[in-house]
Amino acid sequence: MKMSIFTRLSLTFLSVLLPFYGLTMLLNKQGSDSIRSEITRSVSSRDQFYMQNLEQEIKRLSQIFYELLVDNDPMLIGVSHDFSDPDLLDKVKVLQKRLQMVKASSLFVEKPMIYFPSMDRVITPNGLTDEDKLQNPDEIDKLSRSVDPNRIVQLQDGRFYLSLRYPMSTSLDRPPLFVVMFELSASQLKNSLQNIVNPQQGDFLLVHTEEHWALSSSRDEQTVQSLKSLAAGKTNRSGAGSVKLGGTTYWESYVSSEALQLSLFVFIPDEKVLGELKSYEKWVWVILAVSIAVILLLALALYRLIHNPMRRLVSAFRIVQQGRFVPIAETEAKDEFRYLFEGFNRMVSQLNVLIHEVYEKEISTQRSELKRLQAQINPHFLYNCFFIMGGLISDKEYNKAFGFVNYLRDYYRFITKNAEDLILLQEEMRHARTYVDIQTVCYGDRIDVEMEPLPEFLNAIPVPRLIVQPIIENAYKYALVRHSERGELWLHHKVENGCLTILVEDNGQSLDDAAIAALSEQLDTTEIKGEEPTGLINVHRRLRLMYGSDSGLTLCRSQLGGLCVMISIKLKNIS
């Protein structure tokens, strides 16, 4: 692939500059990876530490659950209905103090209580009361059925509970004697999670895999749902990675607790993790863009200094190749290109002097050849016409003979008129029609002729004389007259891709495909073998001289079975 000077200059400068910027970007990426790795280890260790502490705390609370279940005091209260008994009230006070100790010893327990379904009473750290009893029967039933003290349940109002019933067996479907319930503080859970990630820096999501509740630092429900969608499929697993949400890339860390059936997810926007490095990276890209722009401007300046004069010189040589010897406009700059331009102009001037005479002689020779080809007359045709005319007169067909004489008059007046080199296509087709009328008199009904009329927009096209009639004459002479059956001649036209094509087709049987191919080869040769292709070659040469290599004759097999001669004239070459 050939590259221009501008491209080479630009690539040279870029090949020097880009490795340095590539090294800068590589170092920046390595720094980003190192920071991300450190943050991953830090947050992951905090996740693990938090989950371990939460497991230990829930395990400690579970131990308290079991201690209360095996204690005789709640059992005796559960089977008794007389709270006027002083011993029973003492037991209530003992349980009240134990619940106070539970609340004081745990950061997460907000309200410990013991619920007695048979009396619909609750023991809280404040004593025996019915003010704190649960109102929703479904929630009471849900908590009363719990036999797993590690299972954190969320109620409809958003409160979190740990609960354990006594007796623990639920197979008989009987209500429990009592239920130990610890309401957990959602705010304390959130505050403890904020030690892992600040809400201004990222979001956390605590998910229970069985209860399907989620605790998040975000108050926006849509954001919570989006975070839950990112966490989907990663519960009960631990790890870290990168995820995308709404066009924003998040760094993600997650850890799970099989004992608590909890999964903790931490989401931090990538820009928060690599904020400063991202800013540096943007500046590197800005500097790179500015550097490339400067390189392109420098290359453009060198391009204008070197390539533009070279392009002007090459364009001037191409003009000379086209046969137009035009001097190049000299520049005011006194540099090496000025000497080149002056030398080129001297060369063009000398070529004009040397070529002018040869060119004029060539043009004169071409015009003489054109005149000679236009004036070419077939003596056999003239003899046959006089013979036919004599026969008509001897048969006393005077009207037909008179019409025949008029056809001959128009025919010879046309071919002997040399006032103009070019005529209208309408006149050329009229002359072809005259020739066909003459041959119709000669051969009668033996030959059927169909000539399609030209549309109006083609009538005024200038063409050389005698480009259609010689083709028709060739068809009569070598195809139709020798045809043993009824002859057919079809003259029609088409216009495609700016080219007018006149088609002359016959049904002659004297030429096979090899003969047609041989005739096609002779069209562009200077040596004429035999008499048959002379008319075709004459027309082909004149069209080439007049309109260029895109015009001329093309030979192929006719739709009628004989020879098809296509006369092509490139309309764009006609002024």
From TrEMBL:
Transmembrane region(s): 283-303
GO MF annotations in UniProt: phosphorelay sensor kinase activity
Keyword Transmembrane in record: yes
Domain HAMP: 304-356
Topology versus the membrane: Multi-pass membrane protein
Gene Ontology CC entries for this record: plasma membrane
SMART domains registered for this protein in UniProt: HAMP
Main location: membrane
Pfam families assigned to the protein according to its UniProt record, in alphabetical order: HAMP, His_kinase
Subcellular location: Cell membrane
Keyword Phosphoprotein carried by entry: yes
Gene3D superfamilies per UniProt: 6.10.340.10, Histidine kinase-like ATPase, C-terminal domain
This protein's UniProt keywords: Cell membrane, Kinase, Membrane, Phosphoprotein, Transferase, Transmembrane, Transmembrane helix
Protein name stated in the entry: Two-component system sensor histidine kinase YesM
